[in-house]
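Anyone able to model this chain together with nicotinamide-adenine-dinucleotide?
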Amino acid sequence: MDFNGKVAVVTGGATGIGYAVAQGFLKHGGKVVIVDRDPAVVEAAAGLGAHALGVVADISKSGDVQAYVKAALDVFGKIDCLVNNAGIEGKIAPVAEYDEAVWDQVIAINLKGTFLGLRHVLPVMIAQGSGSVVNMSSTAGVLGTPRMAAYTSSKHAVIGLTKTVSGEVARQGIRVNCVCPGPTDTKMLRSIETMINPNDPDGVREAYKAAIPTGRYATSAEIANVVLFLLSDLAAAVTGAHYMADMGRTQVGAAVTTVK
Ligand SMILES: NC(=O)c1ccc[n+]([C@@H]2O[C@H](COP(=O)([O-])OP(=O)(O)OC[C@H]3O[C@@H](n4cnc5c(N)ncnc54)[C@H](O)[C@@H]3O)[C@@H](O)[C@H]2O)c1
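re: yes, here you go
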């Protein structure tokens, strides 16, 4: 894997999976712009060294997206890779009780934020005649996830958006894929565990782990490796794909032979 001379923009890069992608991209020789609505992104970028830039932006706001594109071009001159990673989990509630404002917020960030990233970075890549994009979906992008309707709908939509846009730009030398992580040990998953049972998030964690074929959560670095592969020329033949990185969660059904 070689990102020498390449520039990536990673949204939601202050922490979790996005931060791990930024670390990996730098390790393989590239330069990175990490974007986050959390001002901690500036300090996070400083900790990553001279080839990293932190930009505070809300990906659901068109003006903020245009500003991060401009910052990347001003500082590094081009954008070879885009990772539309920032996302939120919303609330845990059935549709019959789901808060409308939270619904709007989840769709605005997870879906519209991904669209806006594509809307404002693809023209740069089209002008360059090359580029690679990874959008962040989830196992909730392919499975119904009761009590997480906004999140699940947004992540299904990210797969549809990925397939569609990949066909629009394939002849212009641009690949667009998405990754569907299973449970990954980040602050988002901790928040979900706590919402499910505020009195016993550790109990939720143990029960969930037991339902995963590998018996454990993924690390951010493990998910980042799949993102980095898809960004890289090693995946030159791959576009429009949704890559499961879920430790078998969606592929291995509960069977009598797996009961311990
Ligand atoms: N952790 C998991 O188990 C898991 C599983 C499947 C998919 N994912 C997806 O992976 C991505 C990263 O998740 P994570 O677990 O690292 O989450 P995280 O909550 O640890 O980090 C997400 C980052 O995105 C930022 N962010 C949120 N809304 C933003 C906005 N409007 N503008 C800019 N930045 C914003 C947050 O400030 C945070 O730094 C998300 O899209 C998530 O849905 C995570």
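Strands lie at 7-11, 31-36, 52-56, 81-84, 131-136, 174-181, 242-245.
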